[in-house]
């Protein structure tokens, strides 16, 4: 049965309206502010900023620490990927949740956790701490991206190599590793992108002496009002982001092509022989991931005079000598409200974008997908400052709107929603849709009867992950939130900027509270996690 023209036309109209709405939001709340900031700085001495010796050092340290962090994350994540993909162990859901928790922790919490465990006195130790903290944050990307792909590979090819006399290591190098290359390439590009734009980690651990492009843009914009310099650095950062996104897109396409060519193998088995060594390494990595988390919890209940809960009790106040304009618990409430608003905005945009991306031609989908990923790598400070110089031109002056911070957070969460939901929609067998259409269902009925039930769990997971990411977003929020509407990450940063043991204890308590809420949310999300084509997406 062929769909009536009015049904097909209605669906095409919806796709067109959805694409216009999503791209319109991206244009107003991303492209316009970024272009405005760059435009303000173009009149300055851009070439002079490029030529400054400090710029070369900034770029070198940014790329160097990102590369080192990526290597550490890959080395730590591969054993975990093997365990998640191939090993039958009790409590795999708990292991998967523990691996995922670091990825969704607020960056400022990660910085505080490493500050609680490691001595960061000096540039060398600070650099090492930054590399380890960024790797800690991104191990989950490697473990879940590579592990999801690995679980799909046909194990019989590797077993055949072993039967022909190859050792386990040689079989891995010659058979498994080349097959995993697309997933490893995709994970590498994404991890490098996240590490090169890290903000909270460098802000807490850098000690003011070590700065990346992201923190330097913040310094020049907020403290020095050097718009020309900030614009020049934003252009450098944007070029690096576009390159990383291009590599990630290329690797993702190779991964999807590989999945279509190989038979899925969902079977896992107990480890054998030397595989136990890999399991042991994975257990060591997991213990290392838990060390900063446990160190932060311990530090939150210990002070100069021993064990104390003064930090948690201080959450009902505003810090020493009125450091804050809101209490800690008011900041918690504000964080929850802001994250909820950001989540529903991001879910609306992400679901509309996902429907568009599976409905339009491939080249159009690739261009739109790349555009929607750009906010992940552009300085949140640039976006936040751009809001202040552009949004007053819109009716109602959105700079005073309570939705200002949620809009900025939604830009970060929307790509996460798309990356979680889109693979599921693409994985749905088109024959199911064809069968429903043959039975007389129109496009909307097909979506509600076929797509929605199959994608519902991924939608729930996307909403949960989006909420915890928005809850801990710090970059744009630190610039846009007013003192009387500060969120918990902003409160933590302000407490750290003021001297006093009581402020420090309160900051550690707030970090621990935020971490516990995040961990509980991840565990809840894991109960409805989705595996699509054997590849797990965030």
Structure, explained:
The protein has 538 residues and is an all-alpha fold. It has a domain at 44-297: MetI-like (MetI-like fold, Orthogonal Bundle). The protein contains 22 helices and two strands. The protein has a two-stranded antiparallel sheet. α6 (123-150) packs across α8 (168-196). The two termini are 38 Å apart. Keywords: Cell inner membrane, Cell membrane, Membrane, Transmembrane, Transmembrane helix, Transport. Residues 59-246, 332-526 form the ABC transmembrane type-1 domain. Belongs to the binding-protein-dependent transport system permease family.
The low-confidence parts are 259-266, 530-538
**CATH superfamily membership of one domain, which one?**
MetI-like
Do you know the CATH topology of one domain? MetI-like fold
- What's the level 1 CATH class of one domain? Mainly Alpha
Structural class: mainly alpha
Give the DSSP E fraction (strand runs of 2 or more residues).
under 5%
Q: Which overall shape is indicated by the principal axes computed on the Cα atoms? A: globular
Rg: 24 Å
Please give the CATH architecture of one domain: Orthogonal Bundle
Q: Give the strand line-up of the largest sheet.
A: 1-2
* SSE run: HHHHHHHHHHHHEEHHHHHHHHHH
User: In angstroms, what separates the terminal alpha carbons?
Assistant: 38 Å
Relative helix content? over 70%
Largest sheet: 2 strands, antiparallel
Please, what is the average pLDDT? 78
Give the number of DSSP strands: 2
